[in-house]
Amino acid sequence: MEGGPGAVLVRYGEIGTKSSKVRTDMERLLRENLEATLAARDVVATVDREWSRIFVRTDDPEAATDAACDTFGVVSASPARSVDPTMDAIREALGAAASDHPAGATFGVDATRTGDRDAHPFSSPDLEVEGGSTVEAETGATVDLDDPDRTYYVECREQEAFVFTEKRSGPGGLPLGTQGTAVVLLSGGLDSPVAAWELMKRGCTVVPVYVDLGPYGGVDHQARALSTVGELARYVPDGDLALRIVPAGEIVETLMAEVGATRMLSLRRVMLRIAEAVARDVGAHSVVTGESLGQKSSQTGGNLAATDAAVSIPVHRPLLTRDKTDIVEQARAIGTFDDSTVSVGCEQVAPSHPETNATAEAVEAAEPDGLFDRVGAAVDRAELVSPDE
Ligand code: ATP
Ligand code: MG
């Protein structure tokens, strides 16, 4: 969009409902996160906060808007032009904005004016009327006040006015880093990156863990897990996210040799124990999985309960009630889909007649003695891998 220095108007939502101390801290973090994201993407910009908005000044409003829309806490962002708060300057900017008006599209002008009532010799309805005639003259398009195809927005403040035509949706949620740390069991499948994203969206820093199942896993699964970490890193302000790969091949071989119908559940329990040990190491408050009720035999309500009994740390399952089609759609939207379409390796571990409603006692009784004693050593041998290495 031409017609004045570039800016982005960034809006946030839930933060605004917090008490003033919490709100101030969260607003500061949101701003810092956005600054870090812009810097990581080499977008030159300055970020200011004013009332309940964030303003970005930049020569590249498009790239800065993309960065804002990948920043948790942001509800929407608009690439805009900043002009003097005069009728002439606003009309000029509207004329420039209308230069790419889609053929045949109707339009409306939505103007707001803030600050001292006497600061401007015009009202917001004046802006709408005069702005409307400018756009009409430029495009020949028809006004539709009820349901316009394109809206031209004017936000006129005392010192400057912003002109824009888009409100792009951000992810919402809370700024990353406001809700502590969670360990995410990331399988290389489709669900777990979405589960990770959900926790990140609510402000959690995540520590992704991949459990290497040895001969029952596979390098392609591990590679998929790593590339989803790369996709998720886009949402981490400084782009820094690494995968912990915990070698569990020997434990899986023991399960294959010694456990029958409840083998898969014991494997889940081992995974949770691994995640719990990592959580202790990194100071995380919980473990996250991509499980969804009834999606697999290991994910019935009873089996999830039997699985959870192996750990004392809370296990969060943000996808518990979500349908697969819905999860797939979200994976596409957040950019983790392409990298996560292979089936996970642990399918090879599944017994032909899996238990669908185990008790924790029965699962435990079928487990080899000292099974969990090997978890600590496996976690100690974990490898930390960055997606770009
Ligand atoms: P995903 O759920 O990631 O799409 P999936 O549905 O094929 O993969 P499931 O067998 O349903 O995998 O696994 C359930 C959950 O267990 C996963 O969402 C993930 O949180 C965890 N998980 C499974 N395998 C692994 C692994 N090898 N390493 C880490 N976590 C795993
Ligand atoms: Mg799954």
From TrEMBL:
The keyword Nucleotide-binding applies. This is Probable tRNA sulfurtransferase. Catalyzes the ATP-dependent transfer of a sulfur to tRNA to produce 4-thiouridine in position 8 of tRNAs, which functions as a near-UV photosensor. Also catalyzes the transfer of sulfur to the sulfur carrier protein ThiS, forming ThiS-thiocarboxylate. This is a step in the synthesis of thiazole, in the thiamine biosynthesis pathway. The sulfur is donated as persulfide by IscS. It is an enzyme of class 2 (transferase). Belongs to the ThiI family. GO terms for cellular component: cytosol. Its EC number is 2.8.1.4. Pfam families: ThiI (PF02568), ThiI_fer (PF22025), THUMP (PF02926). GO terms for biological process: thiamine biosynthetic process; thiamine diphosphate biosynthetic process; thiazole biosynthetic process; tRNA 4-thiouridine biosynthesis. It catalyses: [ThiI sulfur-carrier protein]-S-sulfanyl-L-cysteine + a uridine in tRNA + 2 reduced [2Fe-2S]-[ferredoxin] + ATP + H(+) = [ThiI sulfur-carrier protein]-L-cysteine + a 4-thiouridine in tRNA + 2 oxidized [2Fe-2S]-[ferredoxin] + AMP + diphosphate; [ThiS sulfur-carrier protein]-C-terminal Gly-Gly-AMP + S-sulfanyl-L-cysteinyl-[cysteine desulfurase] + AH2 = [ThiS sulfur-carrier protein]-C-terminal-Gly-aminoethanethioate + L-cysteinyl-[cysteine desulfurase] + A + AMP + 2 H(+). Pathway: Cofactor biosynthesis; thiamine diphosphate biosynthesis. Its main location: cytoplasm. It is found in: Cytoplasm. Residues 62-167 form the THUMP domain. GO terms for molecular function: ATP binding; CCA tRNA nucleotidyltransferase activity; tRNA binding; tRNA-uracil-4 sulfurtransferase activity. The keyword Transmembrane does not apply. Keywords: ATP-binding, Cytoplasm, Nucleotide-binding, RNA-binding, Thiamine biosynthesis, Transferase, tRNA-binding. ATP binds at residues 185-186, 268, 290, 299.
